[in-house]
């Protein structure tokens, strides 16, 4: 099973940040690139269950519609899900990808997968406190792990995984500060009672996992 935890699409041209005008590409360009990526992913893993979770960047389309085009916000063709045929009304692009608006739980609801909303140095700790259980998020674009022991030998673990996007966003050009992001991904193993997380850091296109080096 492959989980995409959101922000697959940036929607930079309609963001609220000051760098929005710097982008020469359009919203449609981003949608076309995303379709190409998802199509390649499906071809690469024809038998995998692929699940796509909404991130805050995908929500930019909805917020833009609400603020600048509220009269057509109910237009089905303008809905994010419709662009990838997630709503099953048009089967022309049937990639067999399940779309999720809400977080998803595993191991009898003891483990949560969600895009996340915390982004500071202690993001994993605060996400764990918010949920009251173990889990994983991708919102921070930076690898971190928080483990909190509980009486009786139990513990909660919450991980943020690195990103697969550019590490130098345009909005950093004005203030000259680095992003402190890193590339990464995670592998989850689901057991009867808990989920084991392997939080993998990708350095300069290479990662070591279970004793083997993988390169891009």
Task: Give the helix/strand layout.
Blueprint: E1 2-4, H1 27-44, E2 50-53, H2 59-68, H3 80-83, E3 97-100, E4 104-106, E5 111-113, H4 123-131, E6 134-137, E7 144-149, E8 155-160, H5 172-175, E9 183-190, E10 195-202, E11 206-209, E12 212-215
Parallel strand pairs: 1-2, 2-3, 5-6, 6-8
Antiparallel strand pairs: 4-5, 7-8, 9-10, 11-12
Relevant terms:
single chain; 216 residues; alpha/beta; 2 domains; five-stranded mixed sheet; three-stranded parallel sheet; globular
Summary of the model, kept short:
21% of the residues lie in helices and 26% in strands. By secondary structure, the protein is α/β, with parallel strands linked by helices.
Query: Which ranges are low-confidence, i.e. pLDDT below 50, for 5 or more consecutive residues?
Result: 87-92
Counting DSSP H or I runs of 4 or more residues, the number of helices is 5
Structural class: alpha/beta
Q: Could you give the order of strands across the largest sheet?
A: 4-5-6-8-7
Oligomer: single chain
Please tell me what the overall shape is.
Answer: globular
Q: How many structural domains are formed by the residues?
A: 2
Strand tally is 12
Main sheet?
5 strands, mixed
Approximately what portion of the residues adopt beta-strand conformation? Answer: 25-35%
Q: Which whole number gives the mean pLDDT?
A: 84
Report the helical percentage.
Answer: 10-25%
Distance between the termini: 21 Å
SSE order, one letter for each helix or strand: EHEHHEEEHEEEHEEEE
Rg, rounded, reads: 18 Å
């Amino acid at each position: 099973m492959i989980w995409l935890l959101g922000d697959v699409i940036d929607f930079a041209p309609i963001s609220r940040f000051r760098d929005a005008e710097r982008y020469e590409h359009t919203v449609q360009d981003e949608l076309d690139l995303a379709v190409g990526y998802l199509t390649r992913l499906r071809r690469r893993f024809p038998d995998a269950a692929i699940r796509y979770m909404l991130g805050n960047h995908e929500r930019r389309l909805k917020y833009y519609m609400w603020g600048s085009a509220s009269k057509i916000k109910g237009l089905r063709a303008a809905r994010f899900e419709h662009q990838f045929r997630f709503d099953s009304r048009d089967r022309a692009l049937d990639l067999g990808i399940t779309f999720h608006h809400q977080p998803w739980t595993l191991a009898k609801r003891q483990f949560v997968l969600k895009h996340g909303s915390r982004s500071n140095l202690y993001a994993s700790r605060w996400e764990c406190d918010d949920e009251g259980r173990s889990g994983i998020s991708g919102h921070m674009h930076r690898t971190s792990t928080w483990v909190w022991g509980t009486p009786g030998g139990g513990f909660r673990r919450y991980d943020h995984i690195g990103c697969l996007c550019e590490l130098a966003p345009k909005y950093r050009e004005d203030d000259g500060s680095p992003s402190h992001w890193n590339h990464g991904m995670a592998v989850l193993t689901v057991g009867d009672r808990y989920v084991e997380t392997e939080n993998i850091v990708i350095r300069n296109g290479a990662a070591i996992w279970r004793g083997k080096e993988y390169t891009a």
